[in-house]
Amino acid sequence: MSETITGAEAIVRALIHEGVDRVFGYPGGAIIPFYDTLYDYSDKITHVLTRHEQGAIHAAQGYARASHRTGVVVVTSGPGAANIITGLSDANIDSTPLVIIIGQVNSSLLGSDAFQETDVVGITQPISKWNLQIRRSEDIPAAIARAFYIANTGRPGPVVLDIAKDAQTGPVVWDRYRRCNFIRSYIPYPEVSDTELHIAASLINASERPLVISGQGVMIAGAEQELAALAEKADLPVASTLMGLSTMPSDHPLYKGMVGMHGNIGPNFNTNRADLIIAVGMRFDDRVTGEVSKYAPQAKVLHIDIDKAEFDKNIKTYARVHGDAREVLHRLYGLVREAKHTDWLRTFDVANDVERRRVMDRELNTTDPEGRCHMGEVARKVSIAAGIDPILVTDVGLNQMLSSRYFRYTAPRSIITTGGLGTMGFGLPAAIGAKMGAPARTVCVFAGDGGIQMTIQELGTIMQYGVNVKIIVLNNDYLGNVRQWQALFYDNRYSQTPMVNPDFVMIARAYGIEAEDVERRADLNGAIERMMATDGPYLLNVMVDEQDMVFPMTPNGCAVDYIMLNTDEVYSPDMNEP
Fold first, then answer.
1. Residue 251 to residue 254: CA distance in whole angstroms
2. Among candidates 480, 294, 306, 310, which has minimal Cα distance to 403?
3. 419-443 tens-digit pLDDT
């Protein structure tokens, strides 16, 4: 039976029909009709009031990636819309499904430079999967249905709905909400070609030195089991991108580490010795490839991806399979032969052993009780103390690279980080969303003293909602990643990287969050134990060695197998002998 309701109520009802039970946002004038209606539906939809719109969209990103659901953001026009642009761009490049609802001025005022009017469609079009301005209330239900379908199918991404205020207050004849499952011009799941599959299988079967690189597309597709099964059958070494970490457990015998600028020696060095690169759901980002003209010169590249725009974009492929990673890997399993690559696999372990002796032992096994901690040892100890299946959330910088390198992953979807955009300030609000999206899992967020201050106001969100996140500030009084580049390539000229920081512990306590400083290595274990034993949020401000750098490192412009072990040494196979 039909009834007439407002456009604002149509928005709320549509969200409920899409299974939404939580939204992140910040109210304002042009979105007040929605918020007024939401007041009557608070038993069905929880609204999380962040302290800044940037916090809202980063929290929604964390929620979406931890829960495997579509995150929802609601903000007002003008500055509210502008404040989500960083997170929108981040979500777009990292393929995070979001539906972003933005209030807009009355449709009669569009184009008049009205108070808080912003061209949302024009601004967001290049950095969203789809966007639409809604000027009529009757168009709201179908637009929301289409938005959810587009956001979370195929290669996911953020969708923006810019809804005029009078569309929110105007009438809608509500009959029955129809979820969208088909758009004629949009084919999110292409039919996988048998020909492409057989070519891929023949390449794998003929290869003597194969290497699988697992990207976030494996995680998005939920293809972790299929990846492991294929690798085990064909005895394939697997490496991951930063965004692909946790698609295979850290202790799996075929998992050989991370590729990229700060990846592990074995897979980075062997990228340029492989005869076949099997890239699954990854973009061949420049931080992975190094100098593209020197990338994998001996290898045929087999690229598996759901987004055909990625084929040949950065690295020329020999063959490709266009399709969902889970389906493709499942079907390849039946086509590849059982194989053994014992000698080839051993070369990864030998090279990684050099890394253990030359790099990791220094980072993890320094014993001076009075010295400052290394970032990697903090990450490893927190990872161990966090128990079963924790989620690592990172900000950007040295904290990101060292925590992601030294955290241990046992379950899928165990890392939430900002990959393509590298957004400082991402970590704290993303951790809030991650904990709300996966409340049974321990969420540990690592941030530097620079990044934490970009969204530190979200401690207020943690306080208001009692979000049990463990916050580890790796504090070296510098913008550490830039400082490393200045030390290595700019003659130690530390231009605008030293920081004078506030008392983070005092700030946390002002928000009702338990916190403590860790000045010496001798105090670290006890502090981590207290943090993990606390049933609530906790902040550790760990003073780390300001000289700490992240190695190995492949500098910009170098081949991926040019690997710095420290400031003075470059990896050579001659080092493989103990």
1. 8
2. 480
3. 999 999 999 999 999 999 999 999 9
